[in-house]
Design goal:
about 270 residues, alpha/beta, Elongation Factor Tu (Ef-tu), domain 3, Rossmann fold, seven-stranded mixed sheet, 9 helices, 16 strands, about 30% strand
Length: about 270
């Protein structure tokens, strides 16, 4: 088990994996994650499940940002992960809500996909907004096109789709007085924060996945602690999804910089080795 069955580079630093993992695949639900290790002394890395067939395989997408993710992205078809634990975390709430706007930013597009797919199966109207800094960081546009009633592509530099940020088309949908029953946003914390600000003004239920801030994935390290409605929560055990309007995003973003020095040291070691 844990064999790499297929792998493809989606961009210069983003790689898709399909893994043989029947035990996890049979139990997985949209919104959940796994913890992977490449080697005995390797880092434990939480990765949100990007797809699963419910029988034998799970998919995830890895963006190379440090030593641990670089080690994962070296793996090729036929290689094997040392271990994969999961599925972990609380599944997404899937129901027939009505009109759901699904917003994905950068690598957040991957964990958004299984949620949007399940919401579509449940009879919802899906309006998708996918954004990134540039076209090289966008992927799975065909997948989202197939399940979306409307798809808007937006990039910071205008290299694909519209130039701008994801909140702009969201504001336009709201301005049309369209009845939006729910918004799902997954991406950088700053993106989720501003989506939350836009929807809070109109009292539109908004769910964010805070999986990007997880570290060991068990709640023991405390690195993913976040304040929700004035109460401390652990993203890996209490989430990863929360009501966006109750999340203290400013505190969350401040905490994200805690390990920057250690990560930089790992990068330097990687270059020197």
């Amino acid at each position: 088990m844990n064999d790499v069955l297929e792998t493809t580079w989606l961009s210069p630093q983003v790689k898709w994996f399909r893994i043989e993992s029947p035990d996890i695949s049979r139990k997985a639900r949209a919104g959940q994650f796994v913890i992977v290790r490449v080697e005995e002394q390797g880092e434990r890395i939480p990765l949100t499940i990007a797809d699963f067939d419910g029988i034998n395989t799970i998919d995830f997408v890895v963006q190379e940002v440090g030593a641990g993710t670089r080690a994962i992205n070296r793996l090729q078809k036929g290689d094997r992960f040392l271990n994969i634990a999961g599925p972990l975390g609380r599944p997404s709430e899937i129901d027939r809500f009505g009109v759901v706007v699904c917003i994905g930013g950068g690598i957040g597009i991957a964990p958004l996909y299984p949620i949007a797919k399940e919401l579509r199966k449940s009879g919802n109207t899906i309006l998708s907004i996918l954004g990134a800094r540039n076209k090289d960081l966008l992927f799975w546009l065909d997948k989202f096109s197939a399940l979306s009633d409307e798809l808007v592509i937006i990039t910071d530099d205008g290299s694909m789709g519209r130039k701008g940020v994801v909140t702009e088309p969201l504001k336009e949908l709201i301005a049309k007085n369209m009845k939006i029953d729910r918004v799902i946003a997954i991406g950088p914390a700053v993106m989720m924060k501003f989506v939350s600000i836009v929807t809070k003004e109109k009292s539109i239920k908004t769910i964010v996945s805070l999986n990007p801030i997880m570290l060991d994935g068990t709640g023991m390290c405390g690195g993913c602690r976040v304040e929700v409605a004035g109460v401390s929560k652990f993203v890996c055990v209490d989430g990863p999804e929360f009501d966006a309007h109750q999340v203290d995003f400013d505190l969350l973003m401040a905490r994200q910089g805690i390990y920057k020095n250690e990560e930089q040291e790992c990068r330097i070691r990687g270059v020197l080795q």
